[in-house]
Design goal:
- By secondary structure, the protein is an alpha/beta fold.
- The strands form three sheets. It has a five-stranded parallel sheet, sandwiched between helices.
- The protein has seven helices and nine strands; from the N terminus they run βαβββαβαβαβαββαα.
- The two termini are 41 Å apart.
- Helix 3 crosses helix 5.
- It folds into two domains: 152 residues, SPOUT methyltransferase, trefoil knot domain (Alpha/beta knot); 64 residues, Trp Operon Repressor, Chain A (Orthogonal Bundle), CATH 1.10.1270.20.
């Protein structure tokens, strides 16, 4: 899968994708991340990407021309599986279901807004969808793009090794988790400062371990995220 990121701060992305799962997946050729500098799609001496908002008011707005030109240059003949996503505090919330959906596409282009935001014609006539990573305002779309990319990339075939499957993680409706939180985990030492790992996890009985994990996932979800329990009072009645 190919991810494109359009930003005025390309150097921002030197960090987030240089480690761990996403780095290994890139090295293995399972995904390709291409960072594009929005200023490369301007023609004036100052490489201007923003302008004052019509109607007055504070701040600056990212202009439509460089953004349209960038997308049209990256994809001269755009196909339906080449999706443009505008990161925006105002979009529907990005969640695991959205990550699953996006992981089915062949190419994504993530547009990072800045300042007061992006000229509305980008949302109306260029982007396939707007996505927000949470109901708060960030200074720019770069952090949000990194979040969307990371959560989507780990769902691609082969990105997680055989021993770790996304199907066993929190929120996955499709795996054995049924949309619950993941079960809690423990590792060595079995006794740390007198706090003991559950005995059942040490006894090698796979059926008991499976049952314990299921029950503890339900208990943890009920305690921390009751809204994920399908028959809970918030959903059922
Ligand atoms: N004036 C906008 C508003 O009140 O909704 C906020 C603009 S914000 C300072 C600048 C850019 O950061 C946005 O265009 C968007 O790309 C990005 N951004 C901010 N919060 C975000 C969020 N929660 N999710 C995704 N992107 C966000």
């Amino acid at each position: 899968m190919i991810f494109h990121v359009l930003t005025i701060f390309p150097e921002f992305f030197a960090g987030p994708f240089a480690h761990g799962v996403v780095k290994r997946a890139q090295d293995a050729g399972l995904l390709d991340i291409r960072i594009h500098d929005l200023r490369d799609y301007t023609f004036d001496r100052h490489r201007t990407v923003d302008d004052r908002p019509f109607g007055g008011g504070e701040g600056m707005v990212l202009k439509p021309e460089p953004i349209f030109l960038a997308v049209e240059s990256i994809w001269p003949a755009r196909t339906p599986s080449q999706k443009v996503i505008l990161l925006s505090a105002q979009g529907p919330l990005f969640d695991q279901a959205a990550a699953n959906r996006l992981s089915q596409e062949s190419e994504l282009l993530l547009i990072c807004g800045r300042y007061e935001g992006v000229d509305e014609r980008v949302a109306e006539h260029l982007a396939d969808e707007e996505l927000s990573i949470g109901s708060y305002v960030l200074s720019g779309g770069e952090l949000a793009a990194a979040v969307v990319l990371d959560a989507t990339a780990r769902l691609l075939p082969g990105v997680l090794g055989n021993d770790t499957s996304a199907a066993f993680e929190s929120f996955q409706e499709t795996g054995h988790g049924e949309g619950l939180l993941d079960c809690p985990h423990w590792t060595r030492p079995a006794d740390f400062r007198g706090w003991k790992a559950p005995e059942v996890l040490l006894n090698g009985n796979h059926e008991q371990i499976r049952r314990f994990r299921k029950e503890s996932a339900i208990a943890k979800t009920t305690r921390l995220r009751r809204d994920l329990i399908k028959d809970g009072p918030e959903r059922g009645e």
